Amino acid sequence: MTRKVFVAGHRGMVGSAISRLLAKDKNIELITAAHSELDLTSQKDVHEFFAEHTIDDVYLAAAKVGGIHANNTYPADFIYQNLLIETNVIGAAHAVGVQKLLFLGSSCIYPRSVEQPMRESALLTGVLEATNEPYAIAKIAGIKLCESFNRQFERDYRSVMPTNLYGPGDNYHPENSHVIPALLRRFHEAKNLEAPEVVVWGSGKPRREFLFVEDMASACIHVMSLERNVYEANTQGMCSHINVGYGSDVTIGELAFAIAKTVKYSGSIIFDSSRPDGTMRKLMSSERLFSMGWSPSTDLEEGLVIAYEDFLNSPLREV
């Protein structure tokens, strides 16, 4: 029997990866809507869209996202727009009787100072990182919306919290991108200019976890495919969200050398220790998800090759 699945945010990095994977299933009819067709911040438009379409499952991958600079500059936009998106989509799904929904959050929901690796139980146990607190609060609200509809109306709304993602569809803007796309661009340009060295901010010692976006998509579909009793058994007594990570981390220094190898840059790499390192480690515990039968299939070396190919075909390469 064909299931009609709505992917909100299907043009974003994660949403597009989910859509590509779902499209391979002949028993799924994919429903999508570009921003020009549906404004997710409009309650009226979203409720009308759900009323017009028969939808079985929802993947809520839409969000307003950005780096530290954007979060610091536009905090009101980040909390307001993300609250609108998740409230409208989750509320409309419930209103028309959609029983299954998956909400995608962010690892920034966890406190600034938290035991590593970060476990699901760490939610709401401490102060958030100030630079992205509004965004984090919006994502926490999304988790609690799902929990609350489940408690009050017996819905089956689930939440997953991804670690740092990279891969096809990433943002390679020279100022607003995250660490992997930013370094891919920097080493690529250094190679073309035959620059003798590339400077990387910080000591290179902080550790970060990275997950290939196609693996994130497979995790989302795996979580949605779990029987309800299995999902609930693994979140019993915990918050109802599940971490999605690679399971191990690398230093920024190791990452820089791996990217230089991928790009075939042969110059020197200089670490500028006068620049701040930030948090020394951010690793998520994905033991719960691993115990439910999912594991990532793309290692960093393979993923960087694919990400670099995507960068070479990206329109932002010329920005």
Automatic annotation (TrEMBL):
It catalyses: GDP-beta-L-fucose + NADP(+) = GDP-4-dehydro-alpha-D-rhamnose + NADPH + H(+). The active site is at 135 (proton donor/acceptor). Catalyzes the two-step NADP-dependent conversion of GDP-4-dehydro-6-deoxy-D-mannose to GDP-fucose, involving an epimerase and a reductase reaction. Pathway: Nucleotide-sugar biosynthesis; GDP-L-fucose biosynthesis via de novo pathway; GDP-L-fucose from GDP-alpha-D-mannose: step 2/2. Keywords: Isomerase, Multifunctional enzyme, NADP, Oxidoreductase. The lineage of its organism: Bacteria, Pseudomonadati, Pseudomonadota, Alphaproteobacteria, Rhodospirillales. The gene is fcl. The keyword Oxidoreductase applies. Its EC number is 1.1.1.271. GO terms for biological process: 'de novo' GDP-L-fucose biosynthetic process. Residues 5-229 form the NAD-dependent epimerase/dehydratase domain. Substrate binds at residues 186, 201, 208, 277. It is an enzyme of class 1 (oxidoreductase). PANTHER family: GDP-L-FUCOSE SYNTHASE (PTHR43238). The record marks 106, 108 as: Important for catalytic activity. It comes from the Bacteria. Belongs to the NAD(P)-dependent epimerase/dehydratase family. Fucose synthase subfamily. InterPro entries: Epimerase_deHydtase, GDP_fucose/colitose_synth, NAD(P)-bd_dom_sf. GO terms for molecular function: GDP-L-fucose synthase activity; isomerase activity; NADP+ binding. It comes from Thalassospira lohafexi. This is GDP-L-fucose synthase. NADP(+) binds at residues 9-15, 104-107, 139, 162-165, 178.
